[in-house]
Amino acid sequence: MDVLQFSLFFAALLIGYVLVHLRLAKFETYLREVVVLRQLNERLQGVAEAMDRVKVNRLEEALQVLHQDMLELLDTGRKVEAGVGAARAEQGRSGAAHPALSVGERMRASIEERLFQLGYQKLRILTDLREVRLDEEAEVRVECERRMMPCKGIVTARNSAILDVDVRTVVGMFP
User: Over the range 96-130, which residues count as b (16 or more CB within 10 Å of their CB) and which as e?
Assistant: First the structure.
């Protein structure tokens, strides 16, 4: 074996080594990706197991029952609407009209409506409204609750229109 053959053999061996080294480096990066994929696969299996534990059958059944109840309520509402329409038609034929509300009843209704709009509950009107006249300004004493706190005050009204609402919590009245 002369020097030329030995040089060629050595060069071929060196090129082979470089090619094998490059292939091993690529294979190493591929193995790293496979390890990451394996970890992702394990996490995905954990998610799949958790999804298997979640039972939506009960939720679906509850929604079905709720849907059936809603359909029954709609049907009942239609029946009530038809009954009210028939009663109004009968009332129109008989000529009966709603009795006119007195001034005190109209004032009571407007006070209740206004206080309910302001968020008061459990309303009690303490002033006797039977003697109230239409053109007079009336101060009506009330007791009610707001946010579970007892309140007292005066509502000023005239001609069933609310002029002033002065209602305060009872807690603020005591020093």
Answer: eeeeeeebbebbbebbbeebeeeebeebebebebe
